[in-house]
Input
Amino acid sequence: MNRMIKGSMACAMLSAAMVFGGCQTVEVQEKIVEVKAPTKEELFLDRVAKGEPMPVEEILSYIENSRDEWYGWGEGFDFPVHRAEKYLKDWTIVLDPGHGGDAHKKNWKRGPTGVREAAINLRVGLILKALLENSGAQVKLTRADDSYDMGLTARAEVANTIVRKRDGGVGADLFISLHHNAAAPSANYTTVWFHGPVKWSEPDLDPAKYVAHEIGWALRTQVGKTNPLMNDQQMYASGFGVLKMATVPAFLCESTFHTNPDEEQRLRDAEYNFREAYAIYKGLVEYAYGGRPTQSAPVVKVEGSELVIKTKLVDGSGEKWWGHDKERTISSSVNVTVDGKRAYVAYDSKTKELVAKIATADLAEGEKHEVNVHHINMFKHSNYPQRYGFKIAAEGKEVEAKQLPIKRNGLNN
Ligand SMILES: [Zn+2]
Output
């Protein structure tokens, strides 16, 4: 495809030459200059048409420069902008491309012909970052090149300590570790891993299930071979280091197996990495579209022999939706525990206000207490945060409970 560009610069120079030559009556014709060098976007589409392997820079350039074209749903674009991506706007997401800095290590985390897992993870991370940033999310990579490795705790700390743009709070909305799996050559299925008992992991599992289904579908792995959601303590007694150190919602993708010979060859190609990153992006958009419920920080107060807890639930589906005054919280899911004991709960679905009561005699001994608030919305998405800590004050004095991290084994029990 050649683009016709009017040569206005060439025309201006020609006019100047005429003036110096003293010839003032010659009429200057505008010249048409043909520019034949293909643009980056054209190169990209050309490679797609020819089925050639794609360098990651070309994919990133395509995402950066051709975003408007992506709105062409059903017009031959495999990776259109998701029309609901605005629901990810201002989310803070930390992406963690696994491993790194291991090119000098012989036979270390490589496929049968030597494709390195660390390099694949990084390409997926870079492409996913570009996709999510286009949606308006704030995205940070734990490592942005392939020259170094990072400790697992340091990776989780990036997510635990990042300052959110939307509210100035600390801690990412999501932490996603990106990996590819290794096993016998025949294996090539998708797994997404979470840490700890499911009762602690709801904010991890909600986005993880969307992402697991999208990856399996997009990369046509052996869907149905296993349940795609896996507890990391199936693998190691203490779980995966990077997940157990994360105090924010987190999961880890083992998207496909680089040890499968056919899959290894596909994973070389950044266009295939784009397919994987796009699946994760699409899963996250679908999740955000349904909203993550939350609530105001609970306020606790001793009244006589009871502890009274008040909070206001937010179903996460957007305050401005048509029909936002209708109930979108599954009322049977609303419950509150204090120091692990179930409190009596009264929830007003009109005002969204929740009042919970428990006898002070039922509280655990000691100064520090924990209140857990739980509810799910009509998309069956769980609230976050769920844990708060507080100390008892004098009778009648209100105390605002402070958010606690997600409970992880060995970290903050
Ligand atoms: Zn790995």
Q: What stands out?
A: Residues 195 and 236 are 11 Å apart (CA to CA). Residues 98-99, 117, 179 surround zinc ion (CB under 6 Å). Residues 270-290 form the longest helix (21 residues). The first strand starts at residue 3 and ends at 6.
